[in-house]
Design goal:
With 215 residues, the protein is an alpha/beta fold. The protein has 5 helices and 12 strands. The relative contact order is 0.17. Bound molecules: cytidine-5'-monophosphate.
Length: 215
Amino acid sequence: MAEKRTLLITAGPTREALDPVRFITNRSSGKMGYALAAAAVEKGFSVILVSGPVDSSVIPPEGLAEFVPVICAAEMAEVVKTRFPAMDAAILCAAVADYRPKVVAQNKIKKKEGELILELERTEDILFSLGQMKTGQQKLIGFAAETENLAENALCKLKKKNLDWIAANQVGLPGQGFQSDRNEITLYGVNGEVIPLPLTEKKLLAKQMLDAIFQ
Ligand code: C5P
């Protein structure tokens, strides 16, 4: 029997600590990444799912090769970069925080009179890092959630991050995208492919996306 193809998927948000009880995060539910993981298992891939903290109603699919829960961007970067060399492909779907507090307070920050100014620093762009590490045999797929100039921004990211495919979706529309069960994406390939996948359940969309990318 042929070896199973290996696929790494990231999902969910990350949490960037401010102090022991507070953090910065975003509204990602993890549903799209988990749907991709389920569809990939179904399609016969050996799947590693690396996930930020998601609601307990979002459950890892059965049949994963590995499930790695992480909290912050630095932890996700470490796990993903360690495992990527052994993978045939990676789909980075996680909504990784772009910034984290520059200083993490050891103790709970006390309120004082006046303003509190937070200093933030950039986190590592994990997708960009994998684009640098990628061999000719590996496929790398990213997401681009945009509120404007969808195609232009997605194509720019495809190139800049050295991707094979990018799944672009318009965010800020009611009933789709972040936290919703439905989504609509356009897939752009490095060879000029443009594949619109109209609004549907994330589970079906995940299957259509994998079918388009992996024959
Ligand atoms: O540049 P932008 O954040 O819009 O790109 C989104 C894509 O990059 C997604 O695939 C996301 O998972 C990935 N990403 C990442 N690490 C970051 C930021 C984004 O892997 N720090």
